[in-house]
Amino acid sequence: MGFCTGIFMQDYNHFLTMGIESSCDDTSVAVLKGNQTLLAMVKKSQVELHQDFGGVVPEIAARGHTESIFPVMQKALEEAGVKLQEIDLFAATCGPGLVGSLLVGQTLGKTLAMGLNKPFIGVHHLEAHLAANFLEQDDLRFPMVGLLVSGGHSCLYYMETEGEYEILGETRDDAVGELYDKISRELGFGQPGGPVIDKIAASTKCAAVKFTPPLLHSPDFDFSFSGLKTACLKAIQRGDDREGIARGMQEAVIEVLVTKTMRAVREKLSKTLIMAGGVSANRGLRDEFSKRCLENDIRLAVPSIKLCTDNGAMVAKCGFDSYSRGYRSNLTVDVFSRLSLENLYE
Ligand code: KG4
Ligand code: ZN
């Protein structure tokens, strides 16, 4: 994963980091002062650009980022009350994600760094999601377990210490956010599916359609959501109540995520659990984890809702943390579409 030059004894209180996120369908830029002071975070969603296609179209996403990235950056600088020349570090997501989309944010970050003679740091998207927790909390203790659930990933991590990630398990097929989005589309509830299904599951008076939580009792920490997707599709074909399907699907998802994560916390003797990624905005999931962590005396951290889904603030925080630990990226660092922390630092 590259080398670390050691902790810098520098005063970072007034250090300004710009975080640029463009890995999928959100264009976002944030300005972070020091370690935790978020001066601005601007986000432009592309939901309406992809509405007619039933999913994110990579070429349209890349073009959307190209059009939005400058206005979004300008707005972030205005809100922060900061001039571009005052930024000390440029951080941009390098992957995993859609290659064309990643290129837009990364090219902006590198170009500004080169033109203004400032450092650039490439950020791993999943590490950034986890970092959102450290932006808002300063009492999180290692070792900890991290559950990362988004539109593209469903992973359980063990973190012995800062910046070290051991994958305990991950999805064998679909990501959990992908399940929410596909089933919501089939049910006619629209996109993104997660927030709609979450709302319906909490408010419906219909009985839940029963689904088996997938891989609930497997001895590993892997997940699988494609079988649950098929079961939901069959229920739709049978003509089962649509709100009952949404409620039942969410119940099955919560049961498997909570059961396996709490088992990981127990087995790893961890007293801290952090959640991250778009699906961690789910109310039902947050409530169940709060209850279980309270019962088991586990410190639970979950980002505020706006920091769960893709955003520039988590990229700024992750970039700043790596930089202050001594990591540097050079301007030849490439985009990558697969899960890897390699090649980010020189
Ligand atoms: O982290 P994110 O913004 O993008 C990726 O890195 O994939 O996550 C987006 C995903 C979408 O699948 C969306 O439906 C899901 O997060 N999501 C939710 C909720 N809010 C967003 N899923 C369940 N419940 C929610 N409240
Ligand atoms: Zn994400």
Describe, in short, the structure shown.
The chain is 43% helix and 17% strand.
Write the layout of secondary structure elements.
Blueprint: E1 16-21, E2 26-33, E3 37-45, H1 47-50, H2 58-80, E4 89-95, H3 99-116, E5 120-124, H4 125-136, E6 144-149, E7 154-159, E8 166-170, H5 176-187, H6 193-203, H7 226-238, H8 242-267, E9 272-276, H9 283-295, E10 299-301, H10 305-308, H11 312-324
Parallel strand pairs: 1-4, 4-5, 6-9, 9-10
Antiparallel strand pairs: 1-2, 2-3, 6-7, 7-8
Helix pairs in contact: 2-3, 4-11, 5-6, 5-7, 6-8, 7-8, 8-9
Bound molecules: 5'-O-[(R)-(carboxyoxy)(hydroxy)phosphoryl]adenosine and zinc ion.
Report on this model:
The chain has 346 residues and is of the alpha/beta class. Helices cover 43% and strands 17% of the residues. The strands form 2 sheets. A 5-stranded mixed sheet has the order 3-2-1-4-5, with helices on both faces. A hairpin with a 4-residue loop joins strand 6 and strand 7. Helix 4 packs across helix 11. The protein is globular. The N terminus is likely disordered. The structure holds 5'-O-[(R)-(carboxyoxy)(hydroxy)phosphoryl]adenosine and zinc ion. Zinc ion binds next to helix 4.
